[in-house]
Input
Amino acid sequence: MMRIERLGFTYSKNTVDECRVLEDISFHIQEGEFIGLIGSSGSGKTTLIKHLNGLLKADSGAVYFQGQNIYDKGYVLSKLRKEVGLVFQYPEHQLFGRTVLADVCFGPQNLGMSKEEAEKSARDCLELVGINESYYHTSPFELSGGQKRCVAIAGILAMQPKILVMDEPAAGLDPETKHMIFDLVEEIRKKRNIAIVLVSHHMEDVAYYANKVLVLHQGRLVLTGEPEEVFTKTEFLREIGMDVPQITSVTEKLMKEGFPMVNPAITVKEAEERILKVFRERGGAE
Output
């Protein structure tokens, strides 16, 4: 659906404060993919995702959505922003509607849907994120933190995007609510077959949910692959200031102590399966 080719971006170009932030970035987003975008602070992650729906314009390279360069003369960016939804950190801070339903209706109406179409889309999306009808005429500011986050996500989904880009969507939430949000995002991906791009500092979440991982370092894309490929390159990741999932560090230490595993595990479930398999094989041998 989307192809980024050799994208580069400079803040404050041609001024004394000029700062090159992105350099020669290339990757693609396919329908239904769950991409984890990771990198240490200052690597350019948030700047990169702002290019995906035209909030920032690259000074080199191109962004293609469904085969068309979004920088072509006459390209309508409002159409792109309907198709590529961005959820920034603490999206509940962007809630402003008098009621939950009015807030979720705002985006689709602003993009040209009729009042009836917008309300239907809003109701469908609120139901999808677990906000039932009893809350529709409540002020969003009366909701819990997790509910506010869900309403904010519903407001983006109501615009019916094909790609949903999320910058630390679980920031500031307790572990239980965080898992609820991620499970919800995964359910939405499966039901609507939309692509998800997740920016996160929590490697466990990326390892568990993503099927492709992009690693940014100093504005460059330095590693791309499936989670198993990326997170088992522990030395390289640590060299560039990245964390690895805790379970990866634990199983890496087990391997150094002689435990027979080919590679470190990247999720707790995977570690459990491998360890139990070894004990079963040893038990059978005995």
Notes: Residues 245-286 form one domain.
